[in-house]
Amino acid sequence: MTESDQKVFDEDAGAYLPVFSRYKIVLDHGEGPYAYDIDGNKYLDFLGGIAVNVLGHDYPPLVTAIAHQARKMIHCSNLYYTRAQADAAAKLVKLSGLDKAFFGNSGAEANEGAIKVARKYAHSLDPEKSQIISAWNSFHGRTIATLTATGQPHYHEGFGPLPDGFTYVHYNDLAELESMMSDKTCAVLLETIQGEGGVYTPAPGYLEGVRKLCDKYHALLIFDEIQAGIGRSGKFFAYEKYGVKPDVVTLAKGLAGGVPIGAFLTTDAVASTMKPGDHGTTFGGNPLACAAANVVLDTVPQPEFLQHVETVGSYFKAQLLKLQEKYPTLIKEVRGTGLILGAELTIPGRDIVNDVLAKGAIINCTAGNVLRFIPPLIITEEQVDEVLSMIDDVLPKYC
Ligand SMILES: *Cc1c(COP(=O)(O)O)cnc(C)c1O
């Protein structure tokens, strides 16, 4: 830590809302899967801005597209059409097989919009059809409605009263979901793969079962793919991996490679209940964000790109399982698919993350004790080896 680092820490402490427990480095720039701090130290970035920098840092086509669009026009109102937004919407509709897209600026806004369209649609069937069911241990965002949908009571504390109409079930428990559902169920909102909660994948048959229950009760199935989507699972949408199609899907994090954006996609049947004035946004889907999204949407869905995610992800998982064999008392379980992987520890993970940072890699711990790997999708097997050898170096201290 240098004097200039300390200056940033002090400035931050005097001015920024203290809601993050930050790691003590000041990041400055990046290239590919590497990030550099202001002192020039290099880190292999296996967090990728929390599943955001899918194409790595300073990816030339992305930088060029953003610069080009910034020179033409950064923003105009959604009262007008832009080529960039129409293209991004058309690409998402084509990729998903859904019919309509809407752009916001974040994951929370994407889910907020999804909840709104679900409520509007259900209301058109029955004004009392308002129940939204989400999962315990889920994460859907920080606005009041998405916070309420987030099934982690500790995030709710002190923010009440929260809106009515939200209930929770255990992820992967179909019988419990069935017992909670009725004609009053408006929607079931699930992460296709739970990220923040500790990287939990759906059990075989679970999502198909959820789909059937939603059909039975005329409830909408909303998949939150803000973290697991955009190629991370090895398919562009994680739901493609499980062969289950939602009525609404939400995206954000990786969608514009680092430029803030969020989106929800839905069917014509749902979209048709939304009329001019029912929803809106000033910034959402502006030409700058959509120009960036268009690069991601032209790159990530390519079969070779997705195959790379699948290949390097399988390699990564196999190596994590080997690490588990080496440290059976420290690593309880390895979970995930593609490049959304988790290693559940028997101890808290924060000190390990700090030790690995000192060795030169950015990794993450979620849910207190799950090392979570959501790196740029362009990482190589050699870089996987590099990070795992750093972890291997620090683990003996914790045995
Ligand atoms: C990150 C995340 C969100 C919230 O996104 P923000 O952009 O932080 O609002 C919602 N759902 C999931 C699954 C996420 O991973």
Give a short synopsis of this structure.
The chain has 399 residues and is α/β, with parallel strands linked by helices.
Q: How are helices and strands ordered from N to C?
A: HEEEHHHEHEHHEHEHEHEEHHHEEHEEEH
Distance between the termini: 28 Å
Discrete helix count? 15
pLDDT under 50 segments (min length 5)?
none
Biggest sheet strand order reads 4-10-9-8-7-5-6
Helix content: 40-55%
Q: Which whole number gives the mean pLDDT?
A: 98
Taking Cα atoms only, what radius of gyration do you get, to the nearest Å?
21 Å
Relative strand content = 15-25%
Characterize the largest beta sheet: strand count, sense, and whether it forms a barrel.
7 strands, mixed
Globally, the shape reads: globular
Structural class: alpha/beta
Instruction: Count all strands and give the number.
Output: 15
Which hetero compounds are present in the coordinates?
pyridoxal-5'-phosphate
SSE blueprint:
Layout (H helix, E strand, L loop, with lengths): L2 H13 L11 E5 L2 E4 L4 E4 L2 H4 L8 H13 L10 H14 L3 E5 L2 H19 L5 E5 L8 H6 L3 H4 L9 E4 L4 H7 L4 E7 L14 H11 L3 E5 L13 H5 L5 E4 L10 E5 L1 H4 L15 H13 L3 H24 L4 E7 L2 E6 L4 H10 L1 E2 L1 E3 L3 E4 L7 H14 L5
Parallel strand pairs: 3-13, 5-6, 5-7, 7-8, 8-9
Antiparallel strand pairs: 1-2, 2-3, 4-10, 9-10, 11-12, 12-15, 14-15
Helix pairs in contact: 3-12, 4-12, 13-15, 14-15
The structure holds pyridoxal-5'-phosphate.
